[in-house]
Amino acid sequence: MYEVIAESLLGFFWGIMYGAVAFFIVLLLSAVYRYFTNERLSSFIGILFGLGFLGFTGGLLAILEQPTFGGALKIIVVSIFIVWGVNMGDKIAEKIPKKGVSILGIGSAKSSYITVKLPHARLIYDIAAKPKVPESLKEELSEREFTFSADLPMDEIANRVKRRLITDWGVGDVEIELDQSGKVIHLAIAAKEKGLSVSIPEGNVAIPIKYNIVPAQLAAGDIIKIFLDNGEVIEKIEVKGINEDEKIITIVADVGLLERIHGAKAELVVALPAAIQKQPGISVEQKSGAIEEFEIQKIVNSLKKVGVADEVIDKIVKQVQAKLSKMAPPISTRLIKAVIIEELEKENPEAAKKLKNRKFWELKTF
């Protein structure tokens, strides 16, 4: 009797010891199997693996030939621990987030998200016939990633990328195409359309003029001469817009011109050659800190006032333009004055001295 009790206690003790080792081994096996196959490991397979790993196979055969109560109890206790390890490993694997991992095709788990990666900046194109975005914006968008639910159709994912670019980066328009894997195969963007006000210099206004006849194919940007029915003639003005249906042409001029031509209609509009277009403007910074548009024509006028010949003026203007074009705007009026005087001193030192002594070197008097 005492031998049976002692044998039972010894079998129970060794069952707990071996069972603890088998528990962790089978727990790891069950968790790995469930993670990669998304299926539960059979308890029977777990028991066979656990007992075989611990070298109990010989013990099982010995029990069949000459069974002992302690040996059978040891096997039962170890098996209980193994089944417990299988269940625990299965539960642990269920809580581990899956990312579509598979080994040798055993698992076929699919990610529940899809990532859309924008192309490099050099592969982000401009939309034809629309305002271009700055290159800095393309660099900011370069290879940026967006994550969406994989359940969404590709058309909806493309629309969401488009909305993100418009709302978060202020893009005016977006053209985007994705393949079935979510890879961007074409991306083109455009800036927002600018209104008329942003192109009107301070002190000027946009003036609509009703016309009777204009040259065919006249468009915004053309230089024209306008003959009004009140006898006024507007020389060398740029077309800002034209409405053929209403027969209205829009120009930008100072308020003084508006007062002279208010209510007048254009009897004739003549398109002028591009060669006599007005000189380009420069963004300059006044002493007050204000940024204004400065026209090269003002340099011409100032040089004429100090007696510089026309051929010398042309040469100086070209030299000044070449130097100013290499400077980052806005350019201070003081710097413009220094560049002009430097070039003028090479051609006419006396005129340069007169120009240097002028008291008011601002846009309004330049």
Descriptive tags:
20% strand, five-stranded antiparallel β-sheet, 4 domains, 366 residues, elongated, disordered C terminus
Describe this structure in words.
It is a single chain. With 366 residues, this protein is an alpha+beta fold. The chain has 4 domains: 2-95, no CATH class; 115-190, no CATH class; 199-276; 281-356, no CATH class. 44% of the residues lie in helices and 20% in strands. It has 11 helices and 13 strands. The chain has helices at 2-37, 43-53, 57-65, 69-95, 135-141, 154-169, 255-261, 297-305, 310-324, 333-347, 349-356, and strands at residues 113-117, 125-126, 145-149, 173-178, 184-190, 204-210, 223-228, 233-243, 248-254, 266-271, 281-285, 291-295, 331-332. Strands 6-9-8-7-10 form a 5-stranded antiparallel beta sheet. A 3-stranded mixed beta sheet has the order 2-5-4, with helices on one face. Strands 12-11-13 form a 3-stranded mixed beta sheet. Strand 11 and strand 12 (291-295) form a beta hairpin. Helix 1 crosses helix 2. The longest helix is centred in the N-terminal third of the chain and has 36 residues, at 2-37. The radius of gyration is 43 Å and the shape is elongated. It starts with a helix and ends in a 10-residue tail after the last helix. Residues 100-109, 276-280 and 360-366 have low confidence and may be disordered.
Q: Overall mean pLDDT score?
A: 78
Helical segment tally?
Answer: 11
Give Rg in angstroms: 43 Å
The total tally of domains equals 4
Output the strand order for the largest sheet.
Answer: 6-9-8-7-10
- Give the structural class: alpha+beta
